[in-house]
Amino acid sequence: MPLLRPKKLLELRVEQRTAVLTRVNHELRTRDRGGVKRAEQQLKTSLDQLRASLPPVSRAIREEERTSISREIHDETRAGLAPQSRWILR
Question: How much of the chain, in percent, has pLDDT values that exceed 90?
Answer without folding.
Answer: 19
